[in-house]
Amino acid sequence: MSLAAGSAAPNFTLPTHDGGTFTLSEQLGKQVVLYFYPKDNTPGCTTQSCEYNELLPDFDAQNALVVGISRDSAASHERFRAKYGLNFMLLVDADHAVHELYGAWGEKKMYGRTSIGVLRSSIVIDAEGNIVTAAHKVRSKGNAQRMLDLLT
C-alpha cells in the first residue's frame, strides 16, 4: 500500500478511548492528522500528545481532526486523557494492523539493540481522503506544529 502524497488514505475502523468506534472514511470533509505513538504515559508520547492538545484550537481552525493511535487499551487511553486533559480522540490498535497499514510498525534501533515495534509516525490526510504527507520516525517534540504547518 502506497502512502505517497496524493494517494488515497487506507480506510480503517478502530475502537476509541470511550468505547465507540472511529472509521476514517466517515471523516471526509475534514482534514485528519493521525499520529502513531508507542505508549501512553511515557515521556516522549506525553510531550507529543500535550503539544497536539495545546494546538488543538489551531487544528480546529483548519477544520482538522487530531487522532492519536497506539496499542494501549481503551482504559489506558482514558487514564492518559484524564491525567493530561487531552481533548482529542485516542484509538486502540492492539494488534498493530493499522500501524502496519500506515508504515508505523517495523524495525527500529534503540540503545544499540534492534527490535520490531512502533515507529513514531504522523500522517496528514486532506478533506478528500488523500495522503498529504506520511512522516515516519518523527521526533515527538515539535511534531504537532510541523503537522499543523502542512494543513491547507
Write the layout of secondary structure elements.
Layout: E1 13-15, E2 21-23, E3 31-36, H1 43-54, H2 56-61, E4 64-70, H3 74-84, E5 89-92, H4 97-101, E6 105-110, E7 113-118, E8 121-125, E9 131-136, H5 143-148
Parallel strand pairs: 3-4, 4-5
Antiparallel strand pairs: 1-2, 3-8, 6-7, 8-9
Provide a concise account of the structure shown.
By secondary structure, the protein is α/β, with parallel strands linked by helices. The chain contains five helices and nine strands.
**Quick one: CATH superfamily?**
Glutaredoxin
Strand order of the largest sheet: 5-4-3-8-9
**N-to-C span:** 24 Å
What is the count of helical runs?
Answer: 5
**Structurally, how many domains make up the residues?**
1
What's the level 1 CATH class? Alpha Beta
Which spans of ≥5 residues are poorly predicted at pLDDT below 50? Answer: none
Structural class by sheet pairing and helices: alpha/beta
The radius of gyration is 14 Å
Largest sheet descriptor: 5 strands, mixed
Q: Under CATH, the topology is which?
A: Glutaredoxin
CATH architecture: 3-Layer(aba) Sandwich
Helix content: 25-40%
Task: Sketch the topology as an H/E string, one letter per element.
Answer: EEEHHEHEHEEEEH
